[in-house]
Amino acid sequence: MASSGSGYDLSSSTFSPDGRIFQIEYAAKAVENAGTALGLRCADGVVLAVEKPLVNRMLVARTTGGYTRSTSTRASRSRVSSATAGRSLTGRGRRRAITRRHHGTKIPPATLSSRISAYVHYFTLHGALRPFGASTLVAAYDTGTKRHSLHMIEPSGVCYEYYGAAAGRGRQPARTEMEKLVVNPSRVPEGGEMISVSEGVRQLAKIIHSLHDDAKDKPFELEMSWLCEGSGWKHEGVPREIIAGAVEWAKKEIENEGENDEEGDDDEDDEMEE
Amino acid sequence: MSRDSNYDHHISIFSPQGRLYQMEYAFKAASSASGLTGIALRGRDSCVVVTQRRVPDRLVVPSSVSHVHAITSRIGVLATGMTSDCHAAVQRMRYEAADFEFRYGYPMPPSSLARRMADLAQVNTQSASMRPLACVLLIVGIDDEMGPQVLKVDPAGHYLPFVGAASGSKEQEATNFLEKRVDDLKGYGLDEAVRTAIVCLGSVLGSDFRGNEIEVAFVQRGKGGGGGKFRSLTEEEIEEHLNAIADDADA
């Protein structure tokens, strides 16, 4: 069986004998090799966080292009992996958003995400083109329904709305961590409440820092932005002091958890002896 | 089985046996990509579509995962296969239906829409630049003259009207189930049609459902004989039907 893809994996317009399109799967792998990007939908807004590896020690931090860009003031996109692919998608997203304003209304988040996903999907159809090596997270606010939302579009063109979305290298552990946070309005535990944006900022900082292995990975910069009540539902970068505070808190939490794990191991040994 | 492995890389190449392998692989992708099964059937004055609702993970908002789409207010489609291909097909259908109504001044009949999508699908089987869309469409609507219509469009560009049709991974089992009831189906009212569709899905998957695990949608003949609106059942409405089915089974 050709499950290795040999011969069937050279073009987006070729199906393999078991009905897969390998070029799309390879594009997804390209995203998996990139730094982690996270999005979290909180009670009062959406937070985006990206781990931006500083690929070269000579690079001046904070001058490499922002991975998170505003599409319109009310929507923002953060993309993982290929810088040029991301720029092209952001540009497309911006043009879409502007066209909608000509219709007399700001583009609803679901429509914007749907248009981007259709565009991304187009590149998976033609043999002459290759799929985008980028996942896109769209955080947006619908002025009509007054509802904020988070969508993610994958290289295959699949687009869903998320409570918490992760893409890139650390997405599996990040998803596990995000599931523990209270983001699903239908699953709020008794006496609990949905996570707020300021708490979300700290949790995302913690997730990204805990996934980063100082020994193996390059040093990175944490870029965060939000779209929330506090920012007037405009997409803005999270102020640097808040990010710094969140990172400090995150590092302390990670250290504490490290210690607790060691204590926990001792306890388990005691129980087993009993 | 000789696979004529040199002939299966491109859609525009026949194998020496006269097969189009890329077309067959596209069918494979359409039926196995999502792992879901979809069923559509028509009764006396209504059409029903049913499929599973499988949310990929807990962080996804369930309402954004749906394979049932309204094309116009009166025509709906159940699209199974590769998700983004289904999405693209649905967008195209919406465009075609709106364009038809604009041009000709009356709503596009379901069969015309099916024919149009089938023609578009056929182009992809003959021209090498674009691959076939790996999705099977079950289009439902009420035609002014012909009544309830269920039409199935596949990646090859076949389209046919059915009394009952299935798509997806358990297509064959579901079709067998429906074939046994084909004479009865023609007389069913809406409730019976919905329950038959749900029972069919349950029997081919070998499991029971809860209200939030399946999607059910229907379109019923409206007043004056024309088409009514295509709409999805809410979770409560689905639960009602599930309870009725359970009661019938006990009785």
Automatic annotation (TrEMBL), chain A:
What's the main place this protein lives? cytoplasm
Q: Where is the composition biased (Acidic residues)?
A: 256-274
Q: Where is this region: Disordered?
A: 67-95, 250-274
The protein's matches in Gene3D superfamilies, at most eight in alphabetical order, are given as:
Glutamine Phosphoribosylpyrophosphate, subunit 1, domain 1 (3.60.20.10)
- What GO cellular component entries does it have? cytoplasm; nucleus; proteasome complex
Spell out the InterPro entries in the cross-references. Answer: Ntn_hydrolases_N, Proteasome_alpha, Proteasome_asu_N, Proteasome_sua/b
- Where does the Proteasome alpha-type subunits domain lie? 8-30
Task: Provide ranges: composition bias, Low complexity.
Answer: 67-91
SMART domains for the chain:
Proteasome_A_N
Q: Where is the signal peptide?
A: none
Supply the alphabetized keyword list. Cytoplasm, Nucleus, Proteasome
Q: Write out the annotated subcellular location.
A: Cytoplasm; Nucleus
Q: How does it assemble?
A: The 26S proteasome consists of a 20S proteasome core and two 19S regulatory subunits.
Q: What does this protein do?
A: The proteasome is a multicatalytic proteinase complex which is characterized by its ability to cleave peptides with Arg, Phe, Tyr, Leu, and Glu adjacent to the leaving group at neutral or slightly basic pH. The proteasome has an ATP-dependent proteolytic activity.
Question: What family is it from?
Answer: Belongs to the peptidase T1A family.
Instruction: Write the protein's name.
Output: Proteasome subunit alpha type
Lineage at the top is:
Eukaryota, Sar, Stramenopiles, Ochrophyta, Bacillariophyta
Automatic annotation (TrEMBL), chain B:
Q: Which Gene3D superfamilies match?
A: Glutamine Phosphoribosylpyrophosphate, subunit 1, domain 1 (3.60.20.10)
Looking up InterPro entries in the UniProt record yields: Ntn_hydrolases_N (IPR029055), Proteasome_alpha (IPR050115), Proteasome_alpha-type (IPR023332), Proteasome_asu_N (IPR000426), Proteasome_sua/b (IPR001353), Proteasome_subunit_alpha6 (IPR034642)
Q: Which SMART domains does this UniProt record tie to the protein?
A: Proteasome_A_N
- Keywords, sorted A to Z: Cytoplasm, Nucleus, Proteasome
Asked if the Swiss-Prot or TrEMBL record annotates the protein with the keyword Cytoplasm, the reply is yes
Every copy of the Proteasome alpha-type subunits domain together lies at 7-29
Q: Where in the cell is it found?
A: Cytoplasm; Nucleus
Identify one Pfam family in the record.
Answer: Proteasome_A_N
An example Gene Ontology CC term for this record: nucleus
Q: Which domain of life is it from?
A: Eukaryota
What does this gene product do?
The proteasome is a multicatalytic proteinase complex which is characterized by its ability to cleave peptides with Arg, Phe, Tyr, Leu, and Glu adjacent to the leaving group at neutral or slightly basic pH. The proteasome has an ATP-dependent proteolytic activity.
Q: Which family does it belong to?
A: Belongs to the peptidase T1A family.
How it assembles, according to the record, is: The 26S proteasome consists of a 20S proteasome core and two 19S regulatory subunits. The 20S proteasome core is composed of 28 subunits that are arranged in four stacked rings, resulting in a barrel-shaped structure. The two end rings are each formed by seven alpha subunits, and the two central rings are each formed by seven beta subunits. The catalytic chamber with the active sites is on the inside of the barrel.
What's the protein name?
Proteasome alpha-type subunits domain-containing protein
What is the source species? Stephanodiscus triporus
